[in-house]
Amino acid sequence: EVQLLESGGGLEQPGGSLRLSCAASGFTFSKYGMTWVRQAPGKGLEWVSAISGGGGSAYYADSVKGRFTISRDNSKNTLYLQMNSLRVEDTAVYYCAKLVVYARGAFDYWGQGTLVTVSS
Amino acid sequence: DIQMTQSPSSLSASVGDRVTITCRASQGISNSLAWFQHKPGKAPKSLIYAASSLQSGVPSKFSGSGSGTDFTLTISSLQPEDFATYYCQQYNSYPLTFGGGTKVEIK
What we know:
The complex is a heterodimer.
Chain A: E1 3-7, E2 10-12, E3 18-25, E4 34-39, E5 45-51, E6 58-60, E7 68-73, E8 78-83, E9 92-99, E10 107-110, E11 114-118
Parallel strand pairs in A: 2-11
Antiparallel strand pairs in A: 1-3, 3-8, 4-5, 4-9, 5-6, 7-8, 9-10, 9-11
Chain B: E1 4-7, E2 10-13, E3 19-25, E4 33-38, E5 45-49, E6 53-54, E7 62-67, E8 70-75, E9 85-90, E10 97-98, E11 102-106
Parallel strand pairs in B: 2-11
Antiparallel strand pairs in B: 1-3, 3-8, 4-5, 4-9, 5-6, 7-8, 9-10, 9-11
């Protein structure tokens, strides 16, 4: 059974940093791309970032480019999102999801999400 | 970037109704389109990929169609568990983009 479990969310001040983690199980982690999607309070889903199965290719939304870094440790079956220079508008539930292919494609499984609140 | 426009933004329907949601891409995306269901406090659920293929375990009351720029999601007979917000998403090119969502409410 595929499972994705996010952690690392919490309250942070504007300008601060947080690192989110997504622990994966139930599939061969290195064979699949992974992605982060967020939902701000009262808003729709927004794609944040994606990474290929081997970690060699990474993609970002313009809203987070230069501030967020996606990475993965295939030996630990874990996906990360390093979030720097946080802004109030980064407040959201962050979900990780598994792609059905190595680099770019549809998602199939999602985690339950972790809440990030950016506030002074 | 490819813009995804969903309509309607919300709708009210009764149990047993047939419901159709549309999604339009600002440029052609072939069939690189997915649909998701999202309920408050829950993980989004993947329903359809490649415009018309059901994800494993998704009931056949859900169906998708379209190619190029115009797509539809149809729920053949709405059940209480189907009241949720539905999103389309293109994965033809980065950055990936979602539609604004369609909230399906009980009439």
